[in-house]
Amino acid sequence: MMYSEKVMDHFMHPRNVGEIPDANGIGEVGNPVCGDIMKIYLKVEENIVKDVKFNTFGCGSAIASSSMATELIKGRTLEDAWTLTNKAVAEALDGLPPIKMHCSVLAEEAVHKAINDYRVSAGLQLWDYKEHDDIHAQVHGN
Amino acid sequence: MMYSEKVMDHFMHPRNVGEIPDANGIGEVGNPVCGDIMKIYLKVEENIVKDVKFNTFGCGSAIASSSMATELIKGRTLEDAWTLTNKAVAEALDGLPPIKMHCSVLAEEAVHKAINDYRVSAGLQLWDYKEHDDIHAQVHGN
Amino acid sequence: MSGRSVYLDYAATTYVKPEVLQEMLPYFNVNFGNPSSLYSISSVTQRAIDRSRERVAGAINAEREEIYFTGCGSEADNWALKGVAFANRRRGNHIITTKIEHHAILHACEFLESNGFEVTYLPVDQYGFVDPDELERAINERTILVSVMFANNEIGTIEPIREIGAICRNRKILFHTDAVQAVGHVPVDVKDMNIDLLSLAAHKFYGPKGVGALYIKKGIKIDNLIHGGGQERGKRAGTENVAGIVGLGKAIELAVSEMELENLRLSGLRDRLITGLMKIPHSRLNGPKGFSRLPGNVNVCLRFIEGESIILLLDSMGVCASSGSACTSGSLDPSHVLLAIGLPHEIVHGSLRLTMGSGTTDEDVDYVLEVLPGIVDRLREMSPLWKEYLREEIKV
Amino acid sequence: MSGRSVYLDYAATTYVKPEVLQEMLPYFNVNFGNPSSLYSISSVTQRAIDRSRERVAGAINAEREEIYFTGCGSEADNWALKGVAFANRRRGNHIITTKIEHHAILHACEFLESNGFEVTYLPVDQYGFVDPDELERAINERTILVSVMFANNEIGTIEPIREIGAICRNRKILFHTDAVQAVGHVPVDVKDMNIDLLSLAAHKFYGPKGVGALYIKKGIKIDNLIHGGGQERGKRAGTENVAGIVGLGKAIELAVSEMELENLRLSGLRDRLITGLMKIPHSRLNGPKGFSRLPGNVNVCLRFIEGESIILLLDSMGVCASSGSACTSGSLDPSHVLLAIGLPHEIVHGSLRLTMGSGTTDEDVDYVLEVLPGIVDRLREMSPLWKEYLREEIKV
Ligand SMILES: Cc1ncc(COP(=O)(O)O)c(C=O)c1O
Ligand SMILES: Cc1ncc(COP(=O)(O)O)c(C=O)c1O
User: Fold this and answer.
1) Residue B1: its chain D contacts at CB < 8 A?
2) What's the pTM?
3) D151: Cβ below 6 Å to ligand 1?
4) What is the 3-state secondary structure (H, E, C) of chain D?
5) Closest Cα to atom 16, ligand 1: which residue?
């Protein structure tokens, strides 16, 4: 397996690692059995992602995907951040090996979960998102 | 496949090649379909193999076996010559590859046939010999 | 033993060309990392394998992902036949091949026959050609696979592969060709020729022994022959023979780039050798003349004498030749190929194959033509059949 | 990337030792004759193969005629299992193996299961040992074959092969062992251990990739896996990989001659490395300690972090390591071996295999012990599981 230089850069020097003590949106996806957990912390102010941090247990591409996803939504409006797709994450990383595409899916899902977590706590309506069950099943054999 | 030096010597420099115009015993075995024919010519005088020659169509070990068989019976009494076995031929050649053992059998049979051919023409009784059907079948698949 | 050494058995195997060995060497002890490993030094071996895959794909007009490396040509043949047969047995159990295939195909077919498959062995004409019409007539509703060799290893006949491919495509039947003798020697184009699976082996075109490849067109259902780790995208397990694969890639690229000129040169030598050999009384050429014959292949029968003794005497004069395919030369069975083109056993036994290649020169041809007649005479002098012929007991 | 380069993945593959390559070289372009040919230059290659067969036989106390060369360890494994199963299916259809075999065995067994065979996968204890009594209880009247690996490639457990062999001999059941990780590293004696079939691969003991061997005790019924020409006494077709076979022979001889001293040296390094690694908090050793562990094998789990990221960071420091077997490192499945010894998934994901060999030094061990704790800390700092643990949300 070979990672792109971008993946390696975000793995070796991950951006936005950490927790936000006063986060107002948190999204956690994955589980230790599958070998990947991503936890995304948002600090949303005036509909803008003011700050974002992550903690990830997982392989190189899981860490790089988390790092890239946080970069892609930082400073954006919630509406903008919501449009983040796993494809966008993978493309921004100059591609992921097919067997690792699920890492970008986890990143998308973690971001979506964190945004909805914020919306709940802010008394806003949840946004709908489609889970990528297909990729999960394919990769983890369910 | 590897031949012994003895085999190669008798193949490269076969002894007693040719025909005997006034042979009084001739034995031919094998057939062109199987790829080996041996024809042995005897000149028997006073119960002694005075002269012996052969013609052979066949592989290296067929030619070497013919050559060695003629050497082994030349100058011997008929009774002695009759005791020639394929084993003796093969051993005198320092061995033959298993797949080529049938060549020594052909040589034994050709000698026996030639001796009996002489005995018939001399009005003597035929000697019994057991044909090596097993080896023939094994090698030529019948 | 004379001082000369004339190797005329290129169809049995070739030496490894220096450029090829040169490219292989670093993969033994410098870039030795297991290509499946995660660390960066392994990416060198991964890339080397990818590059080789590209070179092979380029040589036969396939896609890179359609090339799978194997341990030899025979493995590729066995995999193609058994893999396709077992994976498609719900669709049917009938396979069509020919009587003149290499034993890797024929014995794999026998194995399949003993496991519930039916195999039709097509006859060939006097030159070794398969008749595409006859092949089409042999197809029935249970036919799942046709396997016809690209070029015959004994008599050099190049089969009408494009026509056969078109028939198979039309009838929606998978088409495999054993191109072990063809690749690197004559143009092969899997797309143009409608080939679904193709076997090749490096040691027939100046690559190393112990490495081959199977081309499998995308989307074809095939079982594994060697199960295990995820190498070759899960289709062929076993730590990759990296140096061998690199050698295969370099050799195939080299062979294709030199093919046009080399073919011209070799077919000139071949035709001169044939003309010379035909001057030996009671000799006959086996296989076709001209463009339908492999450029380096000569195969003749020399009546009244036997092939092995010819080869041993040629060897004593420094000439390496063969009496059929190398892998059966230890056996006593007469060539199934020569029998299939209609020759009687006694003539088949007197066959001689001389195959030329990169190192063959005009002088080599002259030398063979100089020494062979004497060898033939010498053996005929010993042959009871020749004596019968002279006494007119045998007609020819 | 640091300037240092520390290769600790000898169980994945080794480099080819200079003496070995030296002996191989002439067989690429000088002694390149097809061993099956009749002419005299081929006797050089025939003899080279015979010599190699003797060396292999000598290394495992077999007879020369019991050694058959293959294209890799996986081929040997597949051949042993499928060949014995198909050839003996009239006697029964039950096979016993273990849960911790290499995928070459496990996937071959799955193929056999889909073809009418029944397979019992024996569990192992917390150290990876098979229980001979449990094996004996698994035998039934349809059992035809037992296959238990000699030494595990991930956790280094050396199985009680002699006991298992004795049971199989007693019960008249064929016994195969995948000794790919054992041969050349620990003493193997097929007679003393009652082994009927044994697989090995050259690239695990400083020989080339792409060549292995199967030992088949005389008289055992086995079908061919690769049908075709008469090579390997008709049991394995394909033009012989002469250079590879020569390399295997030289390498095995060398490995056996150096084994005793090298084992002492390596187990010393191993135990020091293990002791050092156990100082990292929440680390655990997988597999046994002492004589029942391969001398060069270390395998640990580092909790709260994931194996691939450990390997990538080690790589960035010049250390080549693995997270399990090389051939599955491209896959996402957690190690079936670590699951079989009873570890939960989340711990299995944090496994690290360091395997040492000929080039490994004391300094290499020091270096790993110096850099690894920092890597573990760095990844734990990022890990939500570690944070939960610190907040005492996870118990250990
Ligand atoms: C125990 C075991 N069996 C079989 C194999 C397969 O060997 P190869 O990759 O040479 O086919 C390996 C190594 O990868 C192994 O460690
Ligand atoms: C036509 C053909 N098919 C298959 C093979 C088998 O190739 P290998 O000996 O490399 O397995 C050969 C050569 O021996 C061949 O000439």
Assistant:
1) 38
2) 0.95
3) no
4) CCCCCEECECCCCCCCCHHHHHHHCHHHHCCCCCCCCCCCHHHHHHHHHHHHHHHHHHHHCCCHHHEEEECCHHHHHHHHHHHHHHHCCCCCCEEEEECCCCHHHHHHHHHHHCCCCEEEEECCCCCCCCCHHHHHHHCCCCEEEEECCCECCCCCEECCHHHHHHHHHHCCCEEEEECCCCCCCCCCCCCCCCCCEEEEEHHHCCCCCCCEEEEECCCCCCCCCCCCCCCHHHCCCCCCCHHHHHHHHHHHHHHHHHHHHHHHHHHHHHHHHHHHHCCCCCEEECCCCHHHECCCEEEEEECCCCHHHHHHHHHHCCEECECCCHHHCCCCCCCHHHHHCCCCHHHHCCEEEEECCCCCCHHHHHHHHHHHHHHHHHHHHHCHHHHHHHCCCCCC
5) D153
